Structures are given as structure tokens and as C-alpha cells.
């Protein structure tokens, strides 16, 4: 190979390397700032904030990063047929959320999570009733420190594993605060 050919190969390799470094990965933190919520997601946010206001708490705001975390987890649970806060590979929920909603650069960081599944469907009021009747889920909803939330409700026509091939709706809400 001559010098000119070597320079071309180096230039192509450099462009490929720079492209790979700039390309977002699933957990790189490159998340769109706008969030498109389904009517179920919007209803959950509205009902949850209504309950928070009734208890003298600040409403939570939708977070694109927390919504990306919630969406990834909801889709994984439905596809892989499990229902747990930990990921399918055993990663704890807070470590999974940290990939999307990083604690780096903040002096205070805290996250929580509520999950729900229903066959075949659930509406926002039904989801909130189920969570408010559960002490742990109620505590998350009424935690004063939360400032942001990610919501992902996904309907699966036939989910495997835990769901026994049933038609189900799975909801993940990831709560967070960073200061």
C-alpha cells in the first residue's frame, strides 16, 4: 500500500471511530427532550399528580430520560416474560435507571419504581387504585422528594412466561430527583 492509500485508510478509520463515539447507544444518555405519551400514560400522570396535590405534594414532571428507562424495562418484561424490578440479567432497578437518568454531576440523586400488570387492560384510575392500595406503591406515589417521572404503559397481545401467553398491559413508572 502506498502512503496515499495508507492516509485514506487512516482517514476512513478515523471517521468510523468518530462516528462510533458520537453515535448514541441505548444507555449513552442521548435521549430526546420531548416525550410522546399515550392516553394511558397521560391519564396516569394526571391522576398521580392529582393524588399528590391532594396530599399537599408538588406534582411530578415528565422526564424523557426516566420515560426511556421505563419504556426499556416495560418492553423487556413483556418480551422476556418476567415481572420484576430487577432487569432480566439481574441488574437492580436503580442501576438500570442510572444508565438513563445518571447521578453523575449531581450532589443528590434518588429513584424509585412502581410496576403493574393487568390482563388484558387497565385504565389510569384502576392503576392508581391498585397502587394506592399497596403500601409500598402508595409510599412511592406520596414520596415528597420526587420531582420527575417516567411512564411507560405497553399492551402485549400475548406475553410469555409469567403472563402465560395472555393479553396484558404492563406499566412501569420510574420516579426521580437530581440536584
Describe this structure in words.
This protein has 179 residues and is α+β, with helices and mostly antiparallel strands. Helix content is 43%, strand content 18%. The protein has six helices and four strands; from the N terminus they run ααβααβααββ. Helix 3 (64-80) packs across helix 4 (93-100). The longest helix is centred in the first third of the chain and has 20 residues, at 3-22. The termini are far apart. Residues 1-29 have low confidence and may be disordered.
What is the end-to-end distance? 55 Å
Major sheet characteristics:
4 strands, mixed
Structural class comes to: alpha+beta
Order of helical and strand elements: HHEHHEHHEE
Characterize the quaternary organization of these chains.
single chain
Q: What topology, given as strand order, has the largest sheet?
A: 1-3-4-2
Described by the principal axes of the CA atoms, the overall outline is globular
Count the DSSP helices. 6
Question: Mean of the pLDDT scores?
Answer: 86
**Beta strands, count:** 4
Portion in helices: 40-55%
Radius of gyration: 20 Å
> Any low-confidence stretches, pLDDT <50, length ≥5?
1-29
Give the helix/strand layout.
Elements: H1 3-22, H2 39-54, E1 61-62, H3 64-80, H4 93-100, E2 109-118, H5 124-132, H6 135-141, E3 148-156, E4 168-178
Entry keywords:
about 180 residues; alpha+beta; four-stranded mixed sheet
What is the gist of this entry?
A four-stranded mixed beta sheet has the order 1-3-4-2, sandwiched between helices. With 179 residues, it is an alpha+beta fold. 43% of the residues lie in helices and 18% in strands.
Amino acid at each position: 500500500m502506498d502512503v496515499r492509500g495508507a492516509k485514506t485508510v487512516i482517514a476512513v478509520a478515523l471517521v468510523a471511530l468518530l462516528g462510533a463515539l458520537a453515535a448514541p447507544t441505548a444507555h449513552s444518555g442521548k435521549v430526546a427532550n420531548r416525550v410522546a405519551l399515550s392516553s394511558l400514560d397521560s391519564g396516569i400522570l394526571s391522576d398521580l399528580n392529582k393524588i399528590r396535590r391532594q396530599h399537599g405534594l408538588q406534582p411530578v414532571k415528565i422526564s424523557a430520560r426516566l420515560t426511556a428507562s421505563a419504556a426499556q424495562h416495560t418492553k423487556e418484561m413483556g418480551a422476556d416474560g418476567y415481572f420484576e424490578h430487577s432487569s432480566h440479567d439481574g441488574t437492580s432497578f436503580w442501576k438500570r435507571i442510572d444508565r438513563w437518568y445518571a447521578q453523575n454531576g449531581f450532589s443528590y440523586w434518588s429513584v424509585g419504581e412502581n410496576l403493574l400488570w393487568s390482563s388484558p387492560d387497565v385504565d389510569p384510575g384502576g392503576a392508581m387504585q391498585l397502587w394506592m392500595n399497596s403500601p409500598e406503591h402508595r409510599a412511592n406515589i406520596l414520596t415528597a422528594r420526587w420531582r420527575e417521572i417516567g411512564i411507560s404503559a405497553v399492551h402485549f397481545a400475548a406475553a410469555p412466561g409469567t403472563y402465560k401467553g395472555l393479553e396484558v398491559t404492563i406499566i412501569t413508572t420510574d420516579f426521580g430527583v437530581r440536584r
